Amino acid sequence: MTEQANQLVYAPPRHPWRFRLRAQHIPLLATFVVCLMLYTAACIYLRDRGFFSLSVFISFFSDNAFLGLTAIGMTFVILSGGIDLSVGSMIGFTSILIARLMNPEPFTLFHHTITLPVFHPLVAIGVALIAGSFLGLIQGVLIQFFELAPFLVTLAGMFFIHGLAQVISLSSIGIEHPLLDKLSDFAIPIGSASVRFPEIVFAVVALSAIYISRYTKFGRTIYAIGGNEQSAILMGLPVARTKVLIYALSGFCSALGGVIYALAKWSGQSEGGLGLELDTIAAVVIGGTLLTGGLGSILGTILGVLIVSIIQAAIIFQGTLSSSWARIMIGALLFVFIVLQKILSSRARS
Amino acid sequence: MTVASAAPATPKQPRRAPRSLVLLWPVLALLFILAFNLAFTPGFFHVEVKQGHLFGSLIDVLKNAAPVALTGIGMTLVIATGGVDLSVGTVMAIAGQLTVLLMESEHYHWSMPTACFAGLGVALACGIWNGILVGYVQIQPIVATLILFVSGRGIAELISNDNLTAHSVPFQYLGRGFLFGLPFQIAIVIFVLLVVGLLMRRTAAGLFIESVGNNPVAARFAGINERFIKLLVYSFSGLCAGIAGIVVASNNANADPHNTGLNVELDAILAVVIGGTSLLGGRYSLIGSIVGALIIQAMDTTILTRGVAVEWTLVVKAVVVVGVCLLQAPKFQRLFRRK
Asked: ipTM of this model?
């Protein structure tokens, strides 16, 4: 009994160099092992096609940078025991909003024709990020203060945001600006490959998310809420404020994903990112985060995104398999990880 | 208020409206939409008879609501046990794809009834898979059904990656035919509703499902095989999705692995929630779900016939849904009761 109680309290290990395996490390470790095995297998199987190279490895992050960004936001939400289904539509919304602000068209509002000026891309991106965070905030308020189910509110939010994107424009809008040319040309060479803008944004967000989740009061409160919301309230933690902010943060992350999406596609598309919310949840779960909340890590989510990317890239490199197999493989992995979580959590309880 | 706080601690359960009032809000919402159309949309209530069949906007609403109503019936029972089934849309795609492939491909050339039964069988198998995961492996419903949601469309694309045309005339009757002047789809919905309604009312099944949703632990102590009940409702939801998938394929005379049942799970959940079934489980209304499906379809049709730009559909839908949910939320109701 006392031993069990001791395990629940975080205490720094007595010998910092001796790593003691705890139950909560096992899902993360499993994710890491699967990631390594998949990568090794793909490298051996596809060795003639040049799968094992630094540029391919970096492309895992650039191709799925927007998935990674939304997954980081989603991790915070899931850690708190909630869920955010609106992230996919947020990507389409922010990308089309940026494109529209840069190429305005006159529109009528209450019989007045309004023409907006052409905005600088940085202003457009700023507006999009604020809009995304604000939409997330509203959802958080509905969830926290009216005690509606997160699942339901964000489902309606998904419809609403996708609808807003369609109202802005049904067809895709191209974007062009000298600043964007500079951004896309920007590259830091590393060996034979180079790191570009999306990877840098992803890395910065990932590092700050790891810092926030581990070392700030906000981050610790999220874990506490996910562990047991009632206890968190009784402990005097700012539960209401934190829960609202989590959804705003998720809105911000997916809006940032939308920015990257728009920059990568050189356009805004209201249909962009459709259905991404479930890929995102899959990546988070494969990354070892418990869907009931309270247990998981940003690092795991990054590994989860990496696994999804490796599967997608390997199937493209292989050439003959259809992309349907990528979805089936991800579904199968999801199944394995969920069962693993189940076994681990039931063992921890008994 | 005092009664709720004096009752032994079940924080999960909010205070409930009396059963007779469950249908009040959804029916009022539907009447409101219809009244709005009566006032502002000329010709909405116009029904004409062509070759003994009824045509008109109202009939369209009834007919087009059928897929959501069918999946909604299955979803109602799932939600009544406190779960949710995200996979209905992809199961629809799988069932439709398999049925049309078995009928039309030269390789198989099955007869229409056998092909339909095969499609329904696969849908049932998908439902059983979900049911085993939720009931026996005890995975959270959202997650368990997420697996088939993620991989299901891939499976449908593997069955055949092309849009398959269904030439069979008896098959097309399922979605396009008429019975007593009304579209046959309506008859299918009524039939399924009657069967389920009778099963729930004439046997103890309805009671078991509600008790599992209310308090699974108490249900188990009361001797109810909670796991088997869950297996049953998910299997049934899969079967309903299969029927809907076949109906949609028949209506389009075409099976499309990429778009069949896209977002249907969301519409079905919305229909169920609008209809007054509690997402926490333990309380359900089959008629409410049908009304919910009609509300969603009536809204879609209204927006179309009103000439409102199509792009506003989703925004309006989302606002209405949040509105209805807020009206049902105890916390929101309390805001007004205090004054």
From this structure: 0.73
